[in-house]
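In this section we walk through a basic example: taking a raw amino acid sequence and producing a predicted 3D structure, encoded as discrete structure tokens. The instruction is simple. Fold the sequence below.
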Amino acid sequence: MKKLALTLATIFLLVGCNNDSKAQKISMDPSSPYKEYSINDTKVSNLLEENILKIEAEKYGFDLKTSSAHMISLKKIGSYGSGDIKIIAFLNSKGIKAAEDKGYININRVVSYTCKFEYSYKTDRYLWTSDYPYASTSSLF
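The resulting token sequence is shown next.
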């Protein structure tokens, strides 16, 4: 009985601690408590970052030249992927006007928010939701 329990515990530890061997740890600041890993699927990462930023910029009035999107998490299970993209955007004149018309004044023109996405590896289609702070007040959409 003890041998069986010991064998099961050993197998559980070895299998349970199986890390993603493809993920590469990125060198980082030693004082930071966070671990950073590279994104394995850069094709999907770039596709989602570029397209979501482009559509959000058209919808809310961002300056595309100075705004950026950054994938902060990607979890792939089978042919399904999900995660978060952080957008740091600079409002253009349309975005500022839409915010000011509804009573919001953004002095520095910078907006930072997160989009949650879902991606199908089978169909290459995706959808997302964003927590854009002026979404309910924007007259651009």
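Looking at the output, two observations stand out. The chain is about 30% helix and 25% strand. The mean pLDDT is 80. In the next section we compare this with other chains.
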